[in-house]
Design a protein that fits this description.
Blueprint (H helix, E strand, L loop, with lengths): L2 H105 L3 H42 L9
């Protein structure tokens, strides 16, 4: 074997080793870059997830606050309606007593007073009939509003395909 062959062999092996180490270093740098990008991506995903969780908690709190407000308003309305109903019952009891007293007095009244009383009752009856008609129209409108609100309420049932 000649010196030139040995020299060329050593140079070839040295060049091969240098290329090997260079490629290994380049691959290590690429791998480090990928790890850095993966870490940045994980950090981005974590921050986006945190932001989404915050938005969900705020929306949940808004729904809870709205529900609690509606519930509190409903309880106040119910208490007010109970007070009004109690007042109406007292008025009704008073009217019942007045009606019984009027019936006793009417039995002994002269015919002209009975005629005047009947005319007055006709006027009162007509007022009650008109008020009842207005109340029925309002009740029908409220019932329609309830059906509309029920039908418009979002449904979260799964859609079957």
């Amino acid at each position: 074997m000649s010196l030139a062959t040995i020299t060329h062999g050593v140079v070839a092996v040295s060049a091969g080793l240098l290329v090997w180490f260079f490629q290994e270093a380049r691959l290590g740098a690429d791998l480090a870059d990928e790890r850095l990008r993966a870490g940045e991506y994980r950090e981005q995903v974590t921050s986006e997830r945190s932001a989404a969780n915050t938005r969900v908690r705020k929306a949940e709190q808004a729904v809870t606050d709205k529900y609690q407000g509606a519930l509190n308003a409903s309880l106040k309305r119910e208490a007010l309606q109970r007070l009004e109903l109690d007042g109406l019952r007292r008025v009704n009891d008073g009217l019942r007593d007045q009606n019984a007293d009027a019936a006793r007095r009417l039995a002994a009244a002269p015919p002209a007073a009975v005629l005047e009383y009947a005319t007055a009752l006709g006027v009162v009856f007509e007022d009650c009939r008109a008020a009842y008609g207005d109340m029925a129209a309002k009740a029908a409108g409220h019932a329609s509003d309830v059906v509309t609100a029920h039908d418009a309420w979002p449904s979260f049932t799964p859609v079957k395909e």
